[in-house]
C-alpha cells in the first residue's frame, strides 16, 4: 500500500475516534504527513505550461521530443519526471484510429469435385538485380492443380486483380468459389463487387492459417524454387 493510501486510512481512523498517535503507529506513517501539503503542483506549474505550449504547437510530438525543447529553454527534466507530468495532465499523443476493413462472411468447402469450381490465388515477391520489386500474382485451379495465370508487375492492386480474373474467366468461364488470404487486394470493394455480379463466393482463409490455402501455397513454393530462385532478373 502506498504512503498516500496509508495516510488516507489514518485520516479515516482518526475521524472514527482513534487517536492520531495510535492511527499513525498502526499504519506506519509519520504524524507530520497528516498536515503535509504537496508542493509539487506549484513547482510543476511552469513546466506544465511549457509542455502545453509545445503540445499545442506540435500535436504529434510525444514526451521525449518535448523534453528536448524544454532542455533548450533551460528546463532540465529527467525522463521519469517528464513522463509523469506528461501523463498526469493528459498530454499523450492520441492513438491513431485504425480503419476497420470489410470482412465478408467466411465460407469454406472441402476438396473441389470438378474443374473450375475453386480458384485460389496469392502473391509471391522477389527482387531484381537493380533492387526493383517483383510482385507475382499466381492463380490455381484447385481440382486440376493447373496454373491458370501468373501476372508479374511492380505493383498489383485490386483493380488489376479483377482484370486478370476477368481475362481468365473469359477463356475458361467463371468459377464458383475464389479462395485467398485477407490481403487488401483480395478484400477490396472493386473485387468483391465484381465477384458478386458474377455469382462467385469469396472464401477468405482465417488469419495466420496459410495451410487453408494449401494448394496455392504449394504451387508458390515450387514456383519460387524452380523459377525465381533459378533465374536472375536485371530489371522489370
Automatic annotation (TrEMBL):
SUPFAM superfamilies: Ribonuclease H-like (SSF53098). InterPro entries: HTH-like_dom (IPR025948), Integrase_cat-core (IPR001584), RNaseH-like_sf (IPR012337), RNaseH_sf (IPR036397), Transpos_IS3 (IPR048020). It holds the Pfam family HTH_21. One of its GO terms (molecular function) is nucleic acid binding. Residues 111-236 form the Integrase catalytic domain. GO terms for biological process: DNA integration. NCBIfam families: transpos_IS3. This is Putative transposase. It comes from Jezberella montanilacus. The lineage of its organism: Bacteria, Pseudomonadati, Pseudomonadota, Betaproteobacteria, Burkholderiales.
